[in-house]
Amino acid sequence: MSAIEACRTEVLGGHVAACSKCGHQHVAYNSCKNRHCPKCQGPAARDWMAARAEDLLPVEYFHVVFTLPAEVARIAHWNKREVYGLLFRASAETVTTIAADPRRLGVRIGMTSVLHTWGSALTHHPHVHMIVPGGGLSSGDTLWVPCRPGFFLPVRVLSRLFRRLFLEGLSALHGTGKLAFFGDLEGLADAEAFAAWLAPLRKSEWVVCAKPPFGGPEAVLAYLSRYTHRVAISNNRLISADAETVAFRWKDYRIKSGDRQKVMRLETREFIRRFLIHVLPDGFHRIRHYGLLASAGRKRNVETIRKLLGAAPPASTEATDTDPAPHLTLREPCPDCGGAMRIIETFRRGERPLTRAPPRKAAA
To answer: 321-357 burial, b for 16+ CB within 10 Å, e for fewer?
Structure first.
């Protein structure tokens, strides 16, 4: 919270930028770069997407969502690293296993998974968004095998296997003493009580949904840019805030038709509490790649698939020695004339700039 409060203020220092054409100047304060800060995720998302554009394939892409039941989400609240990590592993293993089944596709696939832990009202709702190319490599990597147009894998089969793998993993975490329990769940520390608590979950339906395929690689990029670096609530959803109350827009998914948009007003302390529920443990990766898209072999696998599909590689976006932009030229152009903005002064944390210039309005 301290990082977000100080973001883009003189507390973190900054620089003065001047336009090389019209002379416009403004002060720009440094970002906190905290991954939970709504202001900092836009630039981070753009940089990440530029890197991912090289991995896009000219195939149909699918969107699969794996959601934890509310009962398990309560345990995840106190065991984020363990349970969220298990959610990643179980969902990835589920899709990989079903896709490798000769009765389905019989191939090796790749996927990008993104963890979200919130609902629209900032409630605790852990789920993984998975973006999967529609097909995979055959044995020996000699053939690209596409899935049926408009259909990836059967959701019911995915749901059953995901439920089994996750509950097996959760039992293993409990058996090794890696889960902590508090409040009215404290009794689940006992092995027999935990086994009894798990029993109904083995029979309930777990929510796995497969959304319609994307329109093409460009649509995949646009979608990922909205999801990969999203935080629990963005600035544009906020309506008002003061010492007593925070009001924000949220979407009520219980409404099947009509306007789902509503306004929620929370006591300020409750709003902060809900926001902090979604802060991840230090070093925990909320974007992960599996299978063909895992970091170790991604470049080689993507090249192999492109050759099998007869697709040309994407145009290189790497900088060259002939790039005209000097080191201190900023990415954003002048807001007045569109000219190149250059840094003419920097100042450290807590300092004020010597150059007189109006402060730059912080981006949402």
So the answer is: eeeeeeeeeeeeebeeeeebbbbeeebeeeeebeeeb
